[in-house]
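Lab notebook page, bench 4
Experiment: in silico fold of construct C2
Operator: M.H.
Input chain length: 258 residues
Purpose: comparison with the prior construct
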Amino acid sequence: MAQAQIEALYRFPVKGLSGETLERAEVAAGQCLAGDRAYAIEHSGSMFDPANPRHLPKIRFLMLMRHERLAMLATEYSEADETLTVKRDGKTVARGALNTLVGRQILEQFFSAFMADDIRGTPHIVSAPGHHFTDVSTPWLSLINLATVRDLERVIGAPVDPLRFRGNILIDGLEPWQEFQWVGDDIRGSSGPEFHVVQAITRCAATEVDPATGARDLMIRKTLENSFGHVEMGVYLEATGDGPLVVGDTLRPVAEAG
């Protein structure tokens, strides 16, 4: 039976910045993971309209694919008061409440100075109720198989931090690449939520960036293409039922779950 265990859960409150680990996350049908990519930092003029939110290409926002300096920062998000704390080398360099004008301005001023050599224009923090700044226009979650990451490590000859792939759900217990066999199937978590496995995730140059240092040190995409014949890592999930995801829970195909 193809059963996997959830080893870690992540969400990324601000697109392009560091993620936070969760022990439990609520899932709603047709939605992203709650709080995931709820904010973004627009850098090329104001095109996002909070009154009429729509998906924009990721190049409109600060992101690791082009702005690897972001990985030098560690961020902490307080859901209670929507405050973002930005740290560098363990020291707080900026803090502001994302739900206030003054708080956003403090953070925008920091990113304007920190990214001065890499962007044109003034960065703006944007959000809209219920909107998620994901790379795709549909509200999906992402799943990474740790056995697949280990197989990539074997080929590349170096440790590969799974956070390079910025997945929401990290699983173990499958064979390497076995998650691709789930594409087109429905899977269920042991605490209740169900998902449709939509497609494999095509990877970009953001995976070259060490999430701890910001260095472009591993040619992940090139290694995938040369060694495995594709540039995909992980799969997208569409939530089709409500319920919690909990670290330690299992995921398995609905057809096998009975």
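Observations: The longest helix spans residues 101-114. The mean pLDDT is 93.
Next step: discuss at group meeting.
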